[in-house]
Amino acid sequence: MASFEVALNEFLFIFTLLFVGNSTYLDDHGPPPQKVLPFPSQVVYNRVGKCGSRTVVLLLRILSEKHGFNLVTSDIHNKTRLTKNEQMELIKNISTAEQPYLFTRHVHFLNFSRFGGDQPVYINIIRDPVNRFLSNYFFRRFGDWRGEQNHMIRTPSMRQEERYLDINVCILENYPECSNPRLFYIIPYFCGQHPRCREPGEWALERAKLNVNENFLLVGILEELEDVLLLLERFLPHYFKDVLSIYKNPEHRKLGNLTVTVKKTVPSPEAIQILYQRMRYEYEFYYYVKEQFHLLKRKFGLKSHIRKPRPRPEFFIPSPLETEEPIDDEEEDDEKWLEDIYKRNKSSLHNTAALTTEMRRQ
Prior knowledge:
Layout (H helix, E strand, L loop, with lengths): L1 H18 L5 H5 L12 E4 L7 H15 L2 E3 L11 H12 L5 E4 L16 E6 L2 H14 L5 H7 L5 H4 L3 H6 L15 H4 L10 H14 E6 L3 H11 L1 H4 L2 H6 L1 H7 L12 H10 L1 H20 L35 H27 L1
Parallel strand pairs: 1-3, 1-4, 2-3, 4-5
Helix pairs in contact: 3-17, 10-16
Main location: Golgi
GO molecular function, one term: sulfotransferase activity
Keywords: Glycoprotein, Golgi apparatus, Membrane, Signal, Signal-anchor, Transferase, Transmembrane, Transmembrane helix
């Protein structure tokens, strides 16, 4: 029996050589078709702290599962400024991710082409600079829905007198947290990794504007988030299709409200005017982005249903400032928190869909 099997195998081998030769599947059929990637297939959301990024990342987790793109996040949350080697390493890691990908992290703009990589499409969202500052100020002290006690555990090094420091005292008495250059926060996310991007001034402002024009597909305004999502859905459908319907889902909105900062108070008019003055360049950039965003909305037929903006404050030119590392923005340092919220959101949305289906059957 064994000899018969050996003979059969030899016959099949000779038959293959005579009639098929060295032919392979690839010879007969060609290579398998390549995976068709959307354009663009490389997107970076270098999210600005306290500008709605947790809301957007929560949506991205749902969308990545729904549409099958690769959502790449980072375990590093508070390191926005990188050395040259760190830039090279991060760009390498991002560039080798499976496409289509969307990478998100708190990090100042990275120039991929400087290190020989393909420049991805950037997206981002900013908000009124004073509102962003106030949100961060109170979040660092009291957190969000989890409550003050929980946030004390997360920020154990903060002294009690610092935690309960009145916002007006902080501003009017020129505490470091409420003065330049720590108020120069938004522009470096768009200016980049150059040391001068950290210094409040025209150079960083103009470079940030240039990068917005040349490297960002969209920079939206948080105060008009629904329009931001609508444009993202239009520009990047493979990533953001149906994002607005998910965002408007009552269950999602209920969970999204858990990210709201608690115990916020409004500073006095005098303190707010001082903040305006100290954040002169931040406001020049904010108004520039807002104007570009509204031009884009009009181009696509979207009307701006917003209140008449306040008159721009009169700014004075600040004195030369030393470069200083800003206080870490701690609002996004807990990826597990996002994961928990995502799971709860997914479960809630699933239950809502199941209930709707059942009602339709009845």
